[in-house]
Write a structure and sequence with these properties.
The complex is a heterodimer of chains A (112) and B (109).
Chain A: E1 4-7, E2 11-12, E3 18-24, E4 33-39, E5 46-52, E6 57-59, E7 67-72, E8 77-82, E9 91-97, E10 101-102, E11 106-110
Parallel strand pairs in A: 2-11
Antiparallel strand pairs in A: 1-3, 3-8, 4-5, 4-9, 5-6, 7-8, 9-10, 9-11
Chain B: E1 4-6, E2 9-12, E3 17-24, E4 36-40, E5 47-51, E6 55-56, E7 64-69, E8 72-78, E9 86-94, E10 97-100, E11 104-108
Parallel strand pairs in B: 2-11
Antiparallel strand pairs in B: 1-3, 3-8, 4-5, 4-9, 5-6, 7-8, 9-10, 9-11
Classes of the chains: A mainly beta (112), B mainly beta (109).
């Protein structure tokens, strides 16, 4: 089964930009959908958005204005960028393939 | 605002059967909402169990099944095992946007 590994800064300043990458162990196909999902400590799951290498994309309306997701087939990598972050963006961020395969998640804390 | 509602908590005895449900404030849940179900144990990433209402992944135990029941998506566990104690989340599609339910904490006691 495919392995997904998120990485990025564990601490981001308020009003800054959260940037994460997801390393994918298998080749990226046009038909796969790559999502980012987050979970604030002790709370439930929130879908952030998704993208396919084929060009399709969808975003959570509440986050759409701040989110960028990209798929780099040459690097086997998925990326997430979330700007103008606040403490409310503190969460474990998961990279997910077709909702079936999940990374282990990475905790990002927004604090000065 | 779209809201997906699950039972906050349920308790089941080992060997018993329990059904978790997933409702939408927009109306009856149909296959068009493409229901998914996930299991999450403390300190772990969620694990996918069911996709497209009732389809299982290769790793999904046979005792888990998905369906539509009374206008809701449903996850039924038959012959519950102690290791099934976990948080369960449903996920519904709304024309390209996905919304998670708040989760059901299942206790096996």
């Amino acid at each position: 089964q495919v392995q997904l590994q998120e990485s990025g800064p564990g601490l981001v300043n308020p009003s800054g930009t959260l940037s994460l990458t997801c390393a994918v162990s298998d080749s990226i196909n046009n038909n796969d959908w790559w999502s980012w999902i987050r979970q604030p400590p002790g709370k439930g799951l929130e879908w952030i958005g998704e993208m396919s290498h084929g060009g399709g994309m969808n975003f959570n309306p509440s986050l759409k204005s701040r989110v960028t997701i990209s798929v780099d087939k040459s690097k086997n990598q998925i990326s997430l960028s979330l700007n103008s972050v606040t403490a409310a963006d503190t969460a474990i961020y998961y990279c997910v393939k077709n909702f079936g395969a999940w990374g282990q998640g990475t905790l990002v804390t927004v604090s000065s | 605002q779209t809201v997906v509602t699950q039972e906050p908590s349920l308790t089941v005895s080992p060997g018993g059967t329990v059904t978790l449900t997933c409702a939408s404030n927009t109306g009856a849940v149909t296959s068009g909402y493409n229901p998914h179900w996930f299991q999450q144990k403390p300190g772990q990433a969620p694990r996918a169990l069911i996709y497209s209402t009732s389809n299982k992944f290769s790793w999904t135990p046979a005792r888990f099944s998905g369906s539509l029941l009374g206008g809701k998506a449903a996850l039924t566990l038959s012959g519950v095992q102690p290791e099934d104690e976990a948080e369960y989340y449903c996920l519904l599609s709304y024309g390209g946007a996905w919304v998670f339910g708040g989760g059901t904490k299942l206790t096996v006691l």
